[in-house]
Amino acid sequence: MVSINRMTIIGNLGSEPEMRFTPNGRPVTSFRVATNWRYTTPDGERREETEWFNVVCWSKLAEQCNQFLSKGRLVYVEGRLRMRTWEGQDGQTRSRNEIVADRVKFLDRQGTAPPPDKVDESDTGEFVPEDIPF
User: Fold this and answer.
1) Contact indicator for 63, 104 with CB cutoff of 8 Å
2) Pairwise CA distance, residues 3 & 101, whole Å
3) Nearest Cα to 77, choosing from 3, 4, 6, 5?
4) Is 55 exposed, middle or buried (0-12, 13-18, 19+ CB in 10 A)?
5) Alpha-carbon span 39 to 46, nearest angstrom
6) Domain 7-131 classified CATH 2.40.50.140?
7) Are the CB atoms for 80 and 6 separated by under 8 Å?
8) 82 three-state secondary structure
9) CB neighbours (10 Å) of residue 83?
10) Where are the beta strands (DSSP E) in 59-112?
11) Residue in 51, 56, 67 with CA at minimum distance from that of residue 12
12) Could you tell me if 107 and 74 are in contact, meaning their C-beta atoms sit under 8 angstroms apart?
């Protein structure tokens, strides 16, 4: 029988990504993503609910997420849902659902555009032959 375990979310990072390394040196980055759902109740009241997702990335994707993501950034995350369980220091069994990402897209261009007061209005975006370095 065929089965599928696929999660897709678009939301904002709730904190800075945290990168660690496994004992054999493999990078792993984790971060939290918030998604919002807006709706109107039958009484006409507008409400908004926020859901938080824990995301884990491995290897090269972990390095890229740690380097380019920051709190508040808008991201698209795709991966599989995994429930992880462990025993806490107090002896209690704990569990956590997390998305093990195999694809993360950075949806906003935060920090890439110059501030409005630094934009050169005379620049048309075209190059002239004198601009070529060879």
Assistant:
1) no
2) 18
3) 6
4) buried
5) 6
6) yes
7) yes
8) strand
9) 8
10) 74-87, 93-106
11) 51
12) yes
Residue 105's contacts (CB-CB under 8 Å, 6 or more residues apart) are: 75, 76
The structure tokens listed for 50 are 């926020």
- What are the boundaries of each domain within the chain? 7-131
Decide: 88 and 32 in contact? Cβ < 8 Å: no
Judging by beta carbons within 10 Å of its beta carbon (0-12, 13-18, 19+), is residue 106 exposed, middle or buried?
middle
pLDDT, one tens digit per residue, over 38-81 is 999 999 999 999 999 999 999 999 999 999 999 999 999 999 99
Position 4 confidence tier, pLDDT thresholds 50, 70, 90: very high
Structure tokens at 16: 């800075």
Q: How confident is the model at residue 19 (pLDDT cuts 50, 70, 90)?
A: very high
d(CA 8, CA 30): 16
**pLDDT per residue over 73-119, tens digit each?**
999 999 999 998 989 899 999 999 999 999 999 998 754 433 333 33
